[in-house]
Design a protein that fits this description.
With 120 residues, this protein is mainly α. It contains five helices and two strands; from the N terminus they run ααββααα. Strands 1-2 form a two-stranded antiparallel sheet. The relative contact order is 0.15.
Length: 120
């Protein structure tokens, strides 16, 4: 389960397509250097890199980071243990990512539809 419901101390993820490393750090209550380190340790975590090597995270990246945070900081896993746990749950995470991504897209489309119908 990637939507960390039992960590109510984390803010909700806004409906945006891309997030900067600073925004993700705030949303996950981590430091930016921790996120960069986790990219090296967890092969599943691959933010989009654009000009100037700037990182842009998507919603599924934030969900994965929150899951890693839960495993390491709350459940007490080591990095190798968390890596193994994520590998064991791999295919179910992909399905959850897809569902979350589709839900986010539907919400964005509904917002656009409301904006367009308000102008009429």
């Amino acid at each position: 389960m990637l939507e960390v419901n039992h960590s109510t101390d984390l803010p909700p993820i806004p409906s945006k397509r891309y997030f900067t490393i600073g925004e993700v750090a705030d949303l996950c209550q981590l430091k930016a250097h921790v996120l960069r380190y986790w990219e090296q340790e967890f092969s599943q975590l691959k933010p989009v890199k654009r000009t100037g090597n700037r990182r842009y995270y998507q919603r599924q990246d934030i969900l994965l980071i929150r899951e890693i945070r839960q495993l390491l900081h709350v459940e007490g896993f080591t990095i190798p243990g968390a890596r193994q746990r994520l590998a064991e749950q791999g295919s179910s995470h992909i399905a959850t990512f897809d569902r979350q991504l589709i839900k986010g897209m539907i919400a964005e489309l509904r917002e656009l539809e409301q904006l367009l119908t308000q102008d009429e």
